[in-house]
Each structure stands twice: as structure tokens, then as C-alpha cells.
Amino acid sequence: xxxxxxxxxxxxxxxxxxxxxxxxxxxxxxxxxxxxxxxxxxxxxxxxxxxxxxxxxxxxxxxxxxxxxxxxxxxxxxxxxxxxxxxxxxxxxxxxxxxxxxxxxxxxxxxxxxxxxxxxxxxxxxxxxxxxxxxxxxxxxxxxxxxxxxxxxxxxxxxxxxxxxxxxxxxxxxxxxxxxxxxxxxxxxxxxxxxxxxxxxxxxxxxxxxxxxxxxxxxxxxxxxxxxxxxxxxxxxxxxxxxxxxxxxxxxxxxxxxxxxxxxxxxxxxxxxxxxxxxxxxxxxxxxxxxxxxxxxxxxxxxxxxxxxxxxxxxxxxxxxxxxxxxxxxxxxxxxxxxxxxxxxxxxxxxxxxxxxxxxxxxxxxxxxxxxxxxxxxxxxxxxxxxxxxxxxxxxxxxxxxxxxxxxxxxxxxxxxx
Amino acid sequence: xxxxxxxxxxxxxxxxxxxxxxxxxxxxxxxxxxxxxxxxxxxxxxxxxxxxxxxxxxxxxxxxxxxxxxxxxxxxxxxxxxxxxxxxxxxxxxxxxxxxxxxxxxxxxxxxxxxxxxxxxxxxxxxxxxxxxxxxxxxxxxxxxxxxxxxxxxxxxxxxxxxxxxxxxxxxxxxxxxxxxxxxxxxxxxxxxxxxxxxxxxxxxxxxxxxxxxxxxxxxxxxxx
Lengths: 418, 225
What we know:
By secondary structure, chain A is of the alpha+beta class. In chain A, about 55% of the residues lie in helices and about 15% in strands.
């Protein structure tokens, strides 16, 4: 088959109906551009929201769960071994919140090839005292450097520096807490620990995560300071946070660590399942809107090609009479449609990119998200690839039906009808 | 190679709509190389129908059709298209020029499809044909800028581009005035004399038919002389 000639004829037919062709191509362009900007925006948003949660969540967390002993004394007794025992009013066992042998576990984990890094942490409830008012809150005693490496806490520090926490008796408090107690950087805050001991800490920074429930209660200090407030030795650690290279393996790894170190573990998938659901729903919405737009554009192409075939019946007849086969005629119209799809699609990608870039620079400042200045956009090349593939598939299908009709045109009927 | 360009054996054709009706009844005929044949007959006698069967465009018939002594009946659409491309040139009552192409391109198009000659050679040949038809200076015009007679001459040039075995015409002078149809006739007879071109023309113009080498008269689906 002579593709060059077929393409040439297709192009000439297009030129003869330039206005309609442009309208058809604009339909595709619009569909693709909307698809690209929508998907980029939605995914940008997904990344942002996921990041908000995931960046601050360890992939695997080792801690001591408050729970009753699994083997109650009665089950140890040989006498009642074969009986079914009902025990009422069980109380959780006090094993202390400290992870036993925490330092050893950390050094083992640091050598595990699957683990990016490990950050130990102490979480404890405290009271922040302001005059006679006591506000309940939480102190996170963190290993400043590894915490910064894994969770980028500096992103959420709106005043001061994270490294200031390395000084003794320093603290970074949540924005909500600071506003409530009218405290600023440099002030001294008084704290009552859960054990009743008092401490005075210097505020070196203000943090704002964007979730007011957290900002109203949370504060950061160094591991050593936290241990001091709690009057605990330096091996006291309540949580071990782990980030993995392969996030998806978290549930398996969590189980493994649970039996290996005899602690309780939770993986991020279990802890944040609702975020996963939200992301996938948003993706489905944006993809379906994009596909619908393209289908509408496809109908436009179908219409225009159909009209063109009726207009060009004579030309089709004479092409067939002078030696073009039905297949050749079919390819002429399929290439017509493909040209519209390709040109429209490429412009769509371009405009999609432009729209995304415009959205990307639109200011988006909200108190809830201090680190975000503009709307988030994800420029994944995959979206562009999907976009152009969709464009070509829809236009080919839209063109194929009229093309089949054209290929079946009986030249004798047309020529004799004159 | 035999001398017969086209031969039919027991060619019959039925129209099924609105009622079954036999248009052509057991036609046996042949056309030799270099003949200038006209088919005449009253309206509805089946002369055009016969032409379209011979042209291979209409494949719904009984009997056998040979072109250049090769059996054509039962070939696929694609093979028939190739046969038309190589062997048959068409001139219809209506010119059927593609309005998107200029005159030269219109003439070249069947040649480009066949792909026997290079583009340059084809252009040269197209210009030669236009020259013999006295249309050389119109080569770069668009079809809608030409008169009826000129368009028909372009259509003839287009029919000639692939050196067809036979040129078929369905009332090629039907839409033309006396002067232009004489002109078209002169072109045809010049082609037979100078190039030994085989021609098969359906017409109801008896003046035209009388001047051809051989006239086939049809009546009620049969050849009567």
C-alpha cells in the first residue's frame, strides 16, 4: 500500500475542510488539556496530602501496646488446661512504656539493609502551666538529627531552627499552644510531667503542622531533655520509628520485627488506610472526567468524518474506479482521524502543561499548610503518555466507523446516480 | 498474448429491487485490441450496466468475464482495484475530478496509486497527455476554474495516465454541447489511430456511435447487432 499517497490525499481532504478539522482537533485538544491539568492537579494534591501524613508517619513503628497479658495465670495451670476458662475484669498489664533493650534494637535495625534509618522517640503526656492554668499536651522527645533526616520536621518549624533543640532544656511548641498561652520564642515554659515533676524549658521555636488538633498539644524536645523531665535513664525510649526503602513491604517487615524483638509494631498502611482510600478515589474521579471529555471529543470527530464522507462520495467513487481498493479508502479516513487525534492531542499536551504551570503558580496560602505557597502539581510524564495514548485510541475508534462505511461505498451506485 | 482485450461468457445480471428483474441476458461479446467500440441502445436496455460489469466495479453477476484472457470473475476487491488501476481508464458523464487537487495532480493521481513511474516521470507524462489534449496551460488550475469541456478533457487525460488496456466511457459527451462533444470524439479517434488505444464507449448519441469502428446495439438486455 502506498502510505505516502494515502496520507497526501487525507491531508488534502483535511485542507478542504479546514474549519471543521480545526474544530474537531480543538475538541481533542480541550479534552487532553483538561485531562492533563486535572490529573496533574489531583495527583499533586494527593502527593501533598499523602506527604502531610506519610512524611510524618514512620513506615514501621515499634512500641509497647497497652494490653492484658496473653497468657493469664489460669491457662498456665495444668488442672484447668482442658477446660474453657472465662475470666472477667482483666486489666491491662503494666509493662512500662519503655521498649526493653531499645538501644540494641536500634543498632540492629540500623544495620538492616531494608531500613533507611531509625529514629528513637519518647512520647509522653504533660501539662503546660501558664499561671494557674494547666493545659494538657504532649512532649515528643526526638533524636533531632535522625528525626530531621526521616521526617523533615524543619518543614513544619515556622519560627526558630530544629537544631536549636540540641541545646539543653530547649523546646519547640505547637502554634496553637503558643497562641493559647501567649508565648513566643525565647520565653520560658513551665511543664508538669505525668509523674508530677516540674521543669522549665526555653522555647526555641514554634511548629505548625497544619492539623490544629496536633498544633494545639504537640511540642518537640530532645531525647535527653525528655528523659530528664521524666526522670528516666538514658536508655528510656517509648517508640522506635523506622523508614524502609520499600514502603509497600511495611506490613511484612512489621510482623517480622514484632516476633524478632518481642514488641508491638504497626505499619503505615494499617495506620493510614483512610488516606490510601482518599487518594485512589481522587484518581478515579480525575481519570473518569478525562476519559469522558475524550469520548465527547471522539463523537465530534465521528460526526465530522461522517459528514465529510457524505460530501466526498464522488471523490471516494472515482478513487475506487481508478484503482483504489476499499482498504485504501478506509486508511485515508483512518489517517484523517489519526491526524486530527495526533495534532489535537499534541496541542492538548502542550496546553495541559501550560494550564498545569499556571495552576502551579497560583498562590495557595492557607494557615493550615504553612509550607505550601502555591497549588500543588505533579508533572509525571506518565500522565502525558496516557493522555496522548487515549487521544489516539479514541480518535482511531471514532474514525474507524465512518472509514468502514467509506470503504464499503459502491462506486457504481454513486456514478450511475448522477 | 491474444488480441482480445475483453471477453464475456454468458454474462447475466439481475436487479433484485423492487422485484427480481433480469437486466442482462447471457451476453457473449469480445473486444479486440485497438478497436473503437460504442454501445448504443434505449434507456434501460442495460448498456451502462454491462459497462460497469466490464469495468470490474460491479461484481454481482453470473457468467464469466475475461480481461486480457485472464479470468476476472471471483477475484477479491483488492485484486480488482489493482486490475482497474493497471488496465482500465474511465471517463464518465460527470468529470469526477477531485476538487482538492489541481488539474495536474488529478491527472497524476491514478498513476501515483499504481506506482509504476517515478513522481517526476509521472508529472512529465501527465503534462504530455494534457498537451495532446490542448490543456497544458491549464495544468495548475483548480478543477472549479475550468469549463465543462475542459474538465472532461482532464478526465480523459486522467484515464490515459497508466497506459490502460482499454478506456471505458459512460456517456462521456452526455453533458457537453455539440462543439465540445465533437472535440471529445476527435480526441478518442485520434487515440485509436495514433496510439492504437482500445475504447469502449456507452452513448445514446447516434451521431457519435455512427462514427466509431464498431457499434454494439442492445435491446432488453441482449446484444442485437
